[in-house]
Amino acid sequence: MDREQTPNAPLLPPPMRPTVHQDDADEEDETVKQLNECSSVYLSLQKFRLSRRVMIEDRKTRGVEK
């Protein structure tokens, strides 16, 4: 039935699922391990990218080519 057929029916939102927080996650769960590994790799790449950018900017300010 849709809303037009039952005008007095209350419009209810879908039930909310409880959210899973990091504290609730099992550290031994394979998915949690993979997420931790991926986040570590991502952060390492970000640090590398930032340090490379700083190095390039430093060379530019000193007038050094590659």
SSE layout and pairings?
Blueprint: H1 30-62
How would you describe the overall organization of this protein?
This protein has 66 residues and is mostly helical. The chain has a domain at 27-61. 50% of the residues lie in helices and 0% in strands. The protein has one helix at 30-62. The model has no long low-confidence stretch (mean pLDDT 78). Residues 1-33 are annotated as: Disordered.
Key traits:
single chain; 66 residues; mainly alpha; 1 helix; 0% strand; elongated
Overall mean confidence score, pLDDT: 78
Which structural class is indicated by helix and strand composition? mainly alpha
- Topology order in helix (H) and strand (E) letters: H
* N- and C-termini, Cα separation: 70 Å
Note the total helix count: 1
- Give the proportion of residues in helices: 40-55%
Radius of gyration, in Å, reads 26 Å
Q: How would you summarize this macromolecular structure in one to three sentences?
A:
The protein is an all-alpha fold.
